[in-house]
Amino acid sequence: MVETIEALVDGGMATGGPPLGPALGPMGINIKDVIDKINEQTKVFEGMKVPVKVHINTTDKTFDIEVGTPPTSSLIKKELNIEKGSSSSKTEKVGDLTMDQVKRIVEMKGDNILGNTIENAVKEILGTCVSMGVTVEGENPQDLQRMIDEGKINL
Prior knowledge:
Blueprint: E1 2-10, H1 20-24, H2 31-42, E2 49-57, E3 62-67, H3 72-80, E4 95-97, H4 99-109, H5 118-132, E5 134-136, H6 141-149
Parallel strand pairs: 4-5
Antiparallel strand pairs: 1-2, 2-3
């Protein structure tokens, strides 16, 4: 039988305390091993909350870790080193990403991004930039989305 425990942990900084420790304790597995594996797999998301699922085989006490990705807005904020997006995204800009940073966010999202091509995935990130008041290489993200559609930007 497999039990699944879901938790939101700090990337690379999970501990044996709540929320994981109390949930893992009754399962009879080595909590330190689970925490170490979670921290290893989430260190790239340091400073962000990361959804994690721990699948535990209650028969042989083995476990498997499934790491989700933080929301796109959190990844953008981390890249820009800002606390929050703009409260008025049309008039107030809070930061400017490079196209390399946008591509890095696409890589971090991995399979959790809806775009089935690099162009669509980048356009998805650009859409989040619009709502957050973030420009990309000094340009309005909507203009860049249009340029990708027109083939003026090659990724």
